Amino acid sequence: MIPKSRVYGPATLAILLAAAGWISTLQAEQTDAAKTAAGPSVAKAQEHEQPLALKQADAGLAWGDCPALFPPGCKIAVLHGDPAKPGADVFLRVPGGYTIPAHWHTSRERMVLVSGSLDVTYAGHPTARLETNDYAYGPAKLPHVAKCRSATPCTLFIAFDEAVDAHPFEGDLGEKT
After folding, report:
1. Where are the beta strands (DSSP E) in the chain?
2. What is the CA radius of gyration of the chain?
3. Are 158 and 89 contacting, i.e. CB atoms less than 8 angstroms apart?
4. pLDDT tens digit string along 117-133?
5. Ramachandran assignment for 7, one of left (phi > 0), alpha (psi -120 to 50 degrees), beta (any other)
6. Which of 1, 43, 69, 132 is the most exposed place for a label (fewest CB within 10 A)?
7. Superfamily of domain 63-168, CATH level 4
8. What is the Cα–Cα distance from 76 to 93, expressed in whole angstroms?
9. How far apart are the first and last CA of the chain?
10. Contact 75, 158 (CB under 8 A)
11. Nearest 10 degrees: CA dihedral of 168, 174, 175, 177?
12. What 3-state class would DSSP assign to 161?
């Protein structure tokens, strides 16, 4: 049996159309919210960067000498980014017993000691002993010195906000005890 057609008056028709429009708007908002919650598409993410996972012993790491202000034995490997631009991540490795001379960076640095035991002293602050997996933060332009206390090499992961640089510091660090 075919249902009878209904005839709606102008007021009823206006209410039905408004409700249909409201439902359509609500559905569009829910779709937009779902897209936002899902984040960017995989294709868009792949346009920018690729994920990366490295081990400190990775044979593919290109270890080079540290800047000339550091004595021989200091090595650095770029993990991610361009050291001449903001946002590079590096490994810095020094032999056991090695002293990293007093220096400062234009950038803040966030560090995690990957191996060894390292004393770090920032100007005007007490020495902090870092053990493997410990974190340290260094403000921009604050001079500091470090010493690898272990017999084995110290490897430090460092993330820089700005370009990677190191400037010698000749003054007194004024260590607090």
Report:
1. 63-65, 75-80, 89-94, 99-104, 109-115, 117-122, 128-131, 135-138, 144-148, 154-160, 167-168
2. 29
3. yes
4. 999 999 999 999 999 99
5. beta
6. 1
7. Jelly Rolls (2.60.120.10)
8. 6
9. 95
10. no
11. 180
12. coil
pLDDT of residue 41: 59
- Reported as a single tens digit per residue, the pLDDT across 18-56 is 434 443 443 445 545 555 555 565 556 556 778 888 887
Classified as helix, coil or strand, 92 is strand
Which of 73, 67, 69 has its CA nearest to residue 95? Answer: 73
Number of Cβ within 10 Å of residue 43's Cβ equals: 7
Alpha helices in the chain (DSSP H): 10-38, 42-48
Secondary structure (3-state) at 154: strand
Measured in degrees and rounded to the nearest 5, phi and psi for residue 87 equal 90, 20
Q: How far apart, in Å, are the Cα atoms of 116 and each of 76, 95, 160, 172?
A: 16, 9, 21, 26
Q: Domains of the chain: which residue ranges?
A: 6-46, 63-168
pLDDT of residue 171: 86
- Alpha-carbon distances, residue 166 vs 25, 41, 67, 169 (angstroms): 56, 39, 7, 9
Residue 143 structure tokens:
């001079």
Q: What values do phi and psi take at 103, rounded to 5?
A: -160, 175
